[in-house]
Task: inverse folding
């Protein structure tokens, strides 16, 4: 061996560093994109959950009302979770004369075509004589 020392390369070359940075940037972009999608889905699920609560509350109010619901469309709004929710209640007849179909749609924006939630329930008519004899739920 001669008096010269062989220089061993320590560390990475510039090309290796650039390739590593490119791989890291692509990975982080994909990760951030996935997280953004999950955040959007969570927001939509929260909105649908609260809209479902509004629809259930409206159906419960219709069932507890003193009068049997008349056929037709009723619109209104309710506040829940510091937001105003707009509902549309449609009452339709059924093949049974003492039963009505109640459809409730809930939206965040009154002018929006698609409802976040649609709930369907049925309300039976209680006649005066039956109401006096049966204290149970409708």
Result:
């Amino acid at each position: 061996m001669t008096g010269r020392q062989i220089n061993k390369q320590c560390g990475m070359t510039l090309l290796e560093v650039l390739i590593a940075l490119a791989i890291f940037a692509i990975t982080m972009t994909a990760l951030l994109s996935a997280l953004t999608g999950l955040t959007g889905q969570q927001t939509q699920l929260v909105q649908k959950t609260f809209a479902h609560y509004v629809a259930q509350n409206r159906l419960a109010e219709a069932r507890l009302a003193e009068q049997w619901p008349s056929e037709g469309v009723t619109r209104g709004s309710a506040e829940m979770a510091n937001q105003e929710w707009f509902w549309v209640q449609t009452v339709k007849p059924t093949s049974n004369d003492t039963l009505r179909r109640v459809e409730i749609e809930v939206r965040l924006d009154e002018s929006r075509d698609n409802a976040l939630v649609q709930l369907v329930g049925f309300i039976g008519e209680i006649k005066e004589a039956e109401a006096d004899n049966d204290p149970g739920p409708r």
User: Anything to note?
Assistant: The domain at 14-133 is CATH 3.30.1300.30 (Pantoate--beta-alanine Ligase; Chain: A,domain 2).
